[in-house]
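Illustration: sn-glycerol-3-phosphate transport system permease protein UgpA.
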Amino acid sequence: MEKSATFNNRLLPYLLLAPQLVITFVFFYWPASQAVLQSFKREDAFGLTSEFVGLENYQALFAQPEYYKAIWTTVVFSTLVALLSLSIALMFATQADKNLKAAPAFKTFLIWPYAVAPAIAGVLWIFMFHPSLGTLARPLRVLGFDWNPLLNGNHAMTLVVMAAVWKQISYNFLFFLAGLQSIPRSVLEASAIDGAGPLRRFWTIVFPLLSPTTFFLLVVNVVYVFFDTFGIIDAVTGGGPAGATTTMVYKVYADGRLGGDLGGSAAQSVVLMVIVIALTAVQFRYVERKVQY
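Result:
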């Protein structure tokens, strides 16, 4: 006769969930609801007086050519950072998973950047590539390359992409390495005995088995490039030159904190939140179909 476990305390599960529910409400649902309410108001720069204006903030927002430029900049920036950080991290993880003598040191060096704050990462990269003070910008000038991210928008975008990719590689590397180490060695050895080369083993066996990890990292990286790269952009370029690196999240800050348009900034944050939720839903709806668990 089988015995089934019973749990008589009905209150304890809710008590265990309470801390997480409180944190989620205080730090997500409450600020999000306040942003939605604020987006329908016109407020002074100090937030002391407000007036309900309905959809005027949204109408004014979508009438700005600068906002569409920020959307396009965000698309380019997010695509480059996500693709580069995932591909480079996967390449490093496949090398670190091999039986190398220096593998522990290799792994340690790759994990270190994860401990660096985004703003600090931005400062490190601007110190290296500052047009007049950068340690790596001087050799570029010696080689005849006129590198100046303070004046050239393409150079500025290249710099913030490199800084954001460098910051995110460590996070992706950790999960890819864990995923690679969970793949049974017997499967790879059997495919090698059958005559499959390294590239064929990777694309037909390793990469499909890594699809759950890749899907998770894709979702995380989308959220990262939309929100967590603010510190890098603020430290490196400040959204310049001429708005070349002004992403949607940085424009929220620039218009609200620097420009004093609190209602318009709140409307931008609501639009950004809707876009990120929609992208995440699309990934779970369509991309997850190709994931092999």
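Reading the tokens back as a structure: The radius of gyration is 24 Å.
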